[in-house]
Design goal:
single chain; 464 residues; alpha+beta; Outer membrane efflux proteins (OEP); four-stranded antiparallel beta sheet; 12 helices; 4 strands; elongated
């Protein structure tokens, strides 16, 4: 027995058992997350929920937790699929780009909880003779002092994590801004395609009326074969154009489904005659408020933080802790100092500096791109409005008048069939002219609004 009553052989054994027990507890305490597979049937169930009542959408929006962002963009979504806001809300909840950006933000928020954490606690056991652990055996435990104090690379890592969060929030805002216009473009294109289908169906109904007369007159031999063939060919062109437009409408539906995140079996895809709001271009918009510029500027903040993190790696590592010599019951302290090899970080520092400089250039290029896009879309909108105000409606009006007159003339004069053919060809060009012109105006206004950026007076959050 030792003077203090502790068996010399028991102390090392107890220490080893204690270390083993501690290690076992640490391993058992490690977090584990169960796998989350998904079957096709489960995917179908989730998609079916999106087609159900508004409660599913409300729950999805609540789970999205987008309160820092401009909720005014989806005001009135409860009114249903006849409102643009409904489709914006479904995109916020279920568009995969929005989900991806939102998950990235959540991932960075979670990662920030571990950013700058001290290095692991280290335990060591040193013995000159493994058969006699009670003689000269030293047990030590050390901690990362600078990490505990939040100095050096630990503090820089926390700063980088904060910049990453702000950058992810800006990327989410930019994604929502982009998806908002994608949805609006899909709605405008779909409504225009519906109008074109209806216009061509009405034209084909008129053609079918006259085509029966052509067939009857041809059977009696009162029309020239060449004129009959031209009449049937132009009538077939109308059918072909209608079929192509119906196919284009299916494409528009699929595009809206992709942008909104809704399955195509959703009741909303049966809605026609939707009242689309004219994109507002008023407000004192500034290029620095544009989501694309904000994102680039925060990417620069991230690059600056990354450069400071690399520079912080030049700090020495400092570990301290107690040290215990078994058998003699001697306690002491232990200090471990680590220094980076001189010049070993120069390459990493230069690389981070170059990436920071590139981020500066990206901000400059984004400003140039947006200003050029604004100038281009302003001119495109002016031309589209000019066409919608005069050229499109005039082509529609004059071709309709010529077609009406040709039909009336052919109803009393069989020799007027060539005029009927010529007028129908021109009517086929003009029947959707006004619709096309109005669509171009709406799309041009959307493109200009997207280039200008949101009205700062309606922004409820600022990720800067």
């Amino acid at each position: 027995m030792s003077p203090n009553g502790i068996s010399p052989s028991a102390s090392p054994r107890s220490c080893l058992l204690g270390l083993a027990g501690t290690l076992a507890l640490l391993v058992l305490g490690c977090r584990s997350i169960a796998p989350r597979p998904v079957t096709v049937e489960e995917a179908h169930d989730q998609l079916e929920q999106r087609t159900s009542e508004d409660a599913a959408l409300a729950a999805a929006l609540e789970a999205a937790d987008l309160t820092p962002l401009p909720a005014s963009w989806i005001e009135g979504w409860q009114d249903g699929p006849s409102r643009q806001a409904y489709w914006q809300a479904t995109a916020w909840a279920w568009n995969i780009d929005c989900q991806r950006a939102r998950r990235e933000l959540l991932a960075r928020l979670a990662a920030a909880e571990s950013a700058g954490a001290p290095e692991e606690i280290r335990a060591s056991l040193e013995s000159p003779d493994v058969e006699r652990l009670d003689v000269g055996t030293h047990v030590g435990v050390t901690i990362d002092l600078l990490g505990v104090l939040g100095l050096g690379s630990a503090g820089a890592a926390r700063e980088l994590a904060d910049a990453d969060i702000r950058s992810a929030l800006a990327d989410l805002e930019r994604t929502l801004w982009s998806v908002r216009h994608d949805v609006d473009r899909a709605l405008v294109a779909r409504e225009a395609e519906i109008d074109r289908v209806q216009a061509l169906e009405a034209l084909l109904a008129q053609v079918d009326q006259d085509r029966r007369r052509v067939d009857l007159l041809d059977e009696r031999g009162w029309l020239a074969p060449a004129d009959v063939s031209m009449a049937r060919a132009i009538a077939t062109r109308v059918e072909r154009r209608l079929n192509q437009t119906r196919a284009a409408l299916a494409v528009r539906d699929e595009e809206l489904a992709r942008r909104s995140g809704l399955p195509m079996v959703s009741p909303g895809f049966t809605v026609t005659g939707m009242l689309l709001e004219v994109p507002s271009l008023n407000g004192g918009r500034r290029v620095e408020d544009h989501p694309d510029v904000r994102r680039r500027r925060l990417e620069l903040v991230v690059a600056e933080a990354e450069l400071r993190r690399v520079l912080a790696d030049q700090w020495p590592s400092l570990r301290i802790g107690p040290r215990w010599q078994l058998g003699d019951d001697l306690f002491g302290g232990f200090v471990s100092l680590g220094l980076p090899w001189p010049g070993s970080l120069n390459g990493a520092i230069d690389s981070a500096r170059v990436r920071r400089d590139l981020a500066v250039e990206e901000v400059v290029e984004e400003v140039r791109r947006l200003e050029a896009a604004t100038d281009r879309q302003t001119r495109v909108l002016a031309e589209a409005e000019s066409e919608a105000a005069d050229i499109g409606p005039r082509l529609d009006r004059e071709s309709a008048a010529a077609w009406k007159a040709a039909r009336a003339r052919f109803s009393v004069d069989t020799a007027a069939l060539p005029v009927w053919v010529d007028s129908l060809e021109r009517r086929l060009d003009g029947v959707t002219a006004a619709i096309d012109a109005e669509e171009r105006v709406s799309l041009a206004r959307l493109a200009l609004r997207e280039a200008l950026g949101p009205d700062p007076s309606r922004l409820e959050g600022d990720p800067r």
